[in-house]
What does this fold into?
Amino acid sequence: MTTVRMRALLLIFLLTAAAGQHALADISSEGLGGLYRSPEPFSLNGYDVVQALWMLRRARLLIQLGPDGERSIVPVRNVEAVTAVYIGTDPEAPGPQHEERYDIVLNGEPLDWANTYIRYNNRMVNLQALFTYRNQLPESGLPLYLD
It folds into this structure.
């Protein structure tokens, strides 16, 4: 229950910060005041990858944005179609619990975090924004949700 509340608070923060998102992208890393850049390529720690796997397995359908803004439905074929893959450690992570990094493979392909949306709180929310920590800057120009 606490995880759901934390995710909801994060989502509210991200949505209210959407107007100031471009201003945040212009801030240099020296003046972030405790904010961290998202890992590149985007990945999750062990705790969050478990949460993401369960969300994806329950969702069954995702929406993916193409390069020209076209939308396509991505089905989650079955529970085994969503797996976590260990990709290594990040020595620059903000804490030891964030060092071990994982990515998700969906239907045999690496998950496109920046362009994939999942139903969350009755909206289609960007997966990368949903799993960006509250002490990280959201990806610049990333649509947080679909209309």
